[in-house]
Amino acid sequence: xxxxxxxxxxxxxxxxxxxxxxxxxxxxxxxxxxxxxxxxxxxxxxxxxxxxxxxxxxxxxxxxxxxxxxxxxxxxxxxxxxxxxxxxxxxxxxxxxxxxxxxxxxxxxxxxxxxxxxxxxxxxxxxxxxxxxx
Amino acid sequence: xxxxxxxxxxxxxxxxxxxxxxxxxxxxxxxxxxxxxxxxxxxxxxxxxxxxxxxxxxxxxxxxxxxxxxxxxxxxxxxxxxxxxxxxxxxxxxxxxxxxxxxxxxxxxxxxxxxxxxxxxxxxxxxxxxxxxxxxxxxxxxxxxxxxxxxxxxxxxxxxxxxxxxxxxxxxxxxxxxxxxxxxxxxxxxxxxxxxxxxxxxxxxxxxxxxxxxxxxxxxxxxxxxxxxxxxxxxxxxxxxxxxxxxxxxxxxxxxxxxxxxxxxxxxxxxxxxxxxxxxxxxxxxxxxxxxxxxxxxxxxxxxxxxxxxxxxxxxxxxxxxxxxxxxxxxxxxxxxxxxxxxxxxxxxxxxxxxxxxxxxxxxxxxxxxxxxxxxxxxxxxxxxxxxxxxxxxxxxxxxxxxxxxxxxxxxxxxxxxxxxxxxxxxxxxxxxxxxxxxxxxxxxxxxxxxxxxxxxxxxxxxxxxxxxxxxxxxxxxxxxxxxxxxxxxxxxxxxxxxxxxxxxxxxxxxxxxxxxxxxxxxxxxxxxxxxxxxxxxxxxxxxxxxxxx
Lengths: 134, 550
Description:
The structure holds two protein chains of two kinds. Chain A has five helices and five strands; from the N terminus they run βαβαβαβαβα. By secondary structure, chain A is α/β, with parallel strands linked by helices. In chain A, strands 2-1-3-4-5 form a five-stranded parallel sheet, with helices on both faces. Helix content of chain B is 61%, strand content 14%. In chain B, the strands form three sheets. A five-stranded antiparallel sheet of chain B has the order 2-1-5-4-3. Chain B has a five-stranded mixed sheet with strand order 7-9-10-12-11. A two-stranded antiparallel ribbon of chain B has the order 6-8. In chain B, strand 3 (259-265) and strand 4 (271-278) form a beta hairpin. In chain B, helix 2 packs antiparallel against helix 3. The interface between A and B is medium-sized, with 22 and 31 residues.
């Protein structure tokens, strides 16, 4: 049901979250790749393949919001869904203003999460690799 | 008889003896002269002998002399009769006188022979002379001996007198010494009796040979009762083994004295705390050997110490709770992460089970991770519970590296949020330490939080917290927590461990003071030094179990 080109990228420093999110994406039927840090993701040269970026807000080194800023500044209009342990209103506002598709608080409701991903994948005008309709 | 006498004296018809000489005048004259001279001589001899005997009263055998005198006298008379009968023929008288002379001479002869052995036994003059000389010699000797004896006697008397004088001095000295000893004894006894602290002497049978009133009151036993009791009998059973070892060490000379704090059970069953200090054991050859001991009742002080300890524990716990409260958000995150993972895995499982056929491999993997994450959340909760629980201080063998790692796990999120990168340099296989794990972690937590706070103002360089464990040259385990913050003002460094001293705007000034008291209670040391090139390093050293035993 999903285009082979649509790859969901997950960046989270927590190994447990990373593995669980990867499995959940798999159960949703998405292709998925995971990265332990913003730096690892940026250095992976997989930005062009990214249909949706699931990003942890707090991370050592470059955090989620900084990565978002960096991508926006680099004209990578990748749809981003933030996941965080803290419902920080200021961070949420900052993220949404910068164009985030969602700002979800852990623990995640899987239906809401899936809707959010679908919404991200349906976004038109892909710069890098626009997702095809299922 | 008268007739015989008259017969003797009657005129006789015999012719005078001179007629036989034919009256020749020459012959007559010769006889007359000879007899007369003889008679005169004979008469003079007894007179001389009598005079001699009369004068020499000590003379032996005077009867012999008298007999001899009489016999010579009689002989002289016969010679006179010889002259007489020349002219007058009184031959009867002459014969009678001769008969008398014969009797006397025979008697004298018999007597002389009779006394001869005795007379011979009489010492001769020469013998007497020799005896005399010998006696004289002996007398000389004896006199010399007597003189020597007298001298010896007087020497002896002199010595006796001198010794008597010495003895009198000695007696005086002894009396004086005795008086001093009595005074000393009285002085010590009054100190012993009046002393506010207990004093007792433990004899070689390990009984209280003597105990003053203070000690009797302290333990509730009388002096008499104590004589059949020993220190071990009244020592609390929990302290008995240690006390026994100490007493044995003193008795066998392994140690000269001991000072200890332990519990006694009074006669009424009440338990009191005492401090016992023994002096050196008295000379075993002394008539009263034993070990003197000073015993103080420190029950009140112990109570105050316990109260202080409790207060410190309460304060320590309050500080810990405050610190944990400040870290609540960070700690919640540590639990939230595994919970989030569990829920995502659970959701994934639902989906893998709903498809046909269910993807059981994925489900199996997911369930494995759910269990792992569940445990991870549970571990975090246990650590928090341990830090928050209100239990008495309990010392166990603690792995310092593990304790440090757990604190870093609890503060992981806080460190991350404050953009502090943590570097750990934990020396593997460190010996364990005997410590209260929670209190030890409180110290580490306090140093980590202080390190984070110290780097809040740092924006122009990386915020790095280095936690290092190592062994120093005295086998102490040292933990260094180094921050790359702004560093401490040298003036503040002096006061940093004081209670209520703080350099933070919202600090209470309790953390380091509490940490310091915890480390000291563990016989360790907490100190601070400037880090190079910037920042501060807080270190604490604690004795390792191995270090303590060796």
